[in-house]
Amino acid sequence: MPSTSKTSLYETLELDGDASPSAIKLAYRRLALVHHPDKLPQGASPVQIDAANQKFQAIGLAYAVLKDEKRKERYDRTGRTDEAGDEAKTEAEWKEYFKELWQGEVNAETLDQFKENYQGESVGHKLGGRGGGFG
Question: Mean pLDDT per 10-residue run, the chain (135 residues)?
Fold first, then answer.
């Protein structure tokens, strides 16, 4: 997806162009939590929901590009974020990506625990007492 915004990926993550990998990761995590569409108040308008989704996607794109050395170097050199000619990630690469985000094993239990912590209530309560899973 080519960058169509005049805002740089660094500005999206509120970083300087010489930000370290750890600063990039920290900025992503902070902003993703702040701007996640699920954090909107109940009764948010469709316009607010759309704006939150767009902001969240922009934050995700900025992180996806800047955390990857090859993509970051290409972006820094050309300003492009598109993936033309790049192959899709393999299953192993996706596992490594999520391991990095989660700093450990990703399975149903860790996902349920994350959801419980993120939403501030028990998963069972949110799922009508069914417990486990995302939906």
Answer: 61 93 95 90 91 93 93 87 61 72 72 76 47 46
- Quick one: 60 and 106 in the same domain? no
CATH code (residue 9)? 1.10.287.110
Report the C-alpha gap between 96 and 101 in whole angstroms.
9
Backbone torsions φ then ψ of 80, nearest 5 degrees: -95, 145
Which residue, chain included where needed, has tokens 């370290």?
20
**Average pLDDT over the chain, rounded to whole?**
78
Segments forming the whole domain that contains residue 112: 90-135
d(CA 24, CA 70): 15
pLDDT tens column, 15-49:
998 899 999 999 999 999 999 988 888 999 999 99
Q: Please give the angle made by the CA atoms of 31, 32 and 35, to the nearest 5 degrees.
A: 80
